[in-house]
Amino acid sequence: MHEETIAPNLPSVAEPSAKRPRGRPRKTDDERDDGNRRHALLSAAAQLFRQKGFAATTTRDIAAAADMQSGSPFYHFKSKNALLYAVMEEGMHTALARQKQVMHASDPQGLHAAEQLRALVVAHFEVLLGPGNDFVPVMLYEWRSLQPRQRKSLALLISEYESLWMPVLLMLHAQGRLRAPVGLARLLILGALNWSVQWFDPKKSASLQDLADAAVAMFLKES
Amino acid sequence: MHEETIAPNLPSVAEPSAKRPRGRPRKTDDERDDGNRRHALLSAAAQLFRQKGFAATTTRDIAAAADMQSGSPFYHFKSKNALLYAVMEEGMHTALARQKQVMHASDPQGLHAAEQLRALVVAHFEVLLGPGNDFVPVMLYEWRSLQPRQRKSLALLISEYESLWMPVLLMLHAQGRLRAPVGLARLLILGALNWSVQWFDPKKSASLQDLADAAVAMFLKES
DNA sequence: CCTACCGATCGGTAGG
DNA sequence: CCTACCGATCGGTAGG
Q1: Which residues in chain A show pLDDT less than 70?
Q2: Which CATH number fits domain A15-77: 2.30.170.40, 1.10.1740.10, 1.10.10.60, 1.20.120.80?
Q3: Which of A86, A128, A185, B79 is positioned for an S-S bond with A180, CB 3.0–4.6 A?
Q4: Topology adopted by domain B80-219
Q5: Cβ of B147 less than 7 A from strand C
Q6: Closest to B218 (Cβ–Cβ): which among A53, A195, A219?
Q7: What is the pLDDT of residues B104-160, one digit of tens each?
Q8: Hey, where are the domains in chain A?
Q9: B77 nearest nt, CA–C1'
Q10: What 3-state DSSP class applies to A177?
Q11: Distance B14 CA to D4 C1' (A)
């Protein structure tokens, strides 16, 4: 999920090969790529799948965005569908890692449940709306493009993710700060957050922290 | 959006022409179709677009589901895209009509703002989750498949819809029962509701009324 | 990873 | 609304 540093005088990755000296620049010694090309495909796919949808994106689109020829994605991935799955899997791994990190950071500090919820919400927003983070949005909006087996596999990661929220929500419920059955509250809260993908504009919307504050203030009763 | 009554011994509309006596049953006198065939296409398209997505649905799929030949949808609609737009437009008209009806019914009864919100939420759930209501979900999840001109046109209907919520939300905000800026509150609330499309199961979930009660209880502070 | 290619499918149309 | 069809595109592969 790191951004490649591109020297300002080089054309951007997605640019057609017009002004470039025919062909892709050959790897130099300081430009090793091991899983590098594979990840270039993943990033390109994530961005395009999010922008145009899985079915409307062609493997040629993806190849071009990763600066490859039309057949080359299939050297790295068995099928277009496998590419979709890989995008989603990376998205969930990122989200899980981020969320666990947040919980470990807040736990020993003895944060209140409300503060823990806030931390979870901020992390969720970051994974969803942070620059270049197209992986999780693809997962949210292309579920129906998965095969049953792939769904089952991802569902495990998702329920692991959701289970991280449960202790916090249960605590808040016990404190009387959260109405509605906890399971339903989780669906409504995550729904409200996930929908931000549709309207969030980094140039016009508030900061992720401010959004998180407002959301938590709306969901929770006064203590 | 009315359900067609189907005699139990007849095959369902979407069923392939296996057990049927070759070809489409000819219109009888009591089976006039004026805009009827057109609407059969709309319903089939809505269901398929929701199920598989716009790009993954072929016009042949739609034609077959409406019991027509592959070229026939283009007699009723200029393009596949025009069909998508028509589905969304019908969805928004239904939603607007339903919502206005709800507001007119609740207004003279002098309902409290919280009760008005509850009525809006129930109506929203119905339009979203009611049996056969695939039109609005398609609008929510295929926005990116629209052309810019179509988006602009639909955006008018959407903002009309959202503006129906504003007086109620403003009132609740003034009463101190709704935290967060009203505009953001609207986005979060509608997001929480819209997300239900992803998890609602008529066989397992609570009734739409119970869901609405829980949602309103969670969003609003005690009075 | 590229070149060259195949088979299938798809949106759309002419002409009735 | 059907029949018959076209041109373009697409996922995927062989063979290097």
Answers
A1: 1-34, 107-110
A2: 1.10.10.60
A3: A185
A4: Tetracycline Repressor; domain 2 (1.10.357)
A5: no
A6: A219
A7: 887 666 679 999 999 999 999 999 999 999 999 999 999 999 999 999 999 999 999
A8: 15-77, 80-219
A9: C12
A10: coil
A11: 25
CA of A89 to C1' of D13 (A): 26
By three-state DSSP, how is residue A68 classified? coil
Nearest CB among B181, B188, B218 relative to A180 is that of B218
Check if residue A68 sits with its Cβ under 7 angstroms from strand C. Answer: yes
Inter-chain touch A181–B214, beta carbons under 8 Å = yes
pLDDT one-digit tens code per residue, A186-212? 999 999 999 999 999 999 999 999 999
Q: In terms of CA atoms, which chain A residue is nearest residue B217?
A: A179
Task: Mark yes or no for CB contact A191/B190 under 8 Å.
Answer: no
Q: How many residues make up chain B in this entry?
A: 223
pLDDT at position B142 is: 98
Structure tokens given for B149: 């001109």
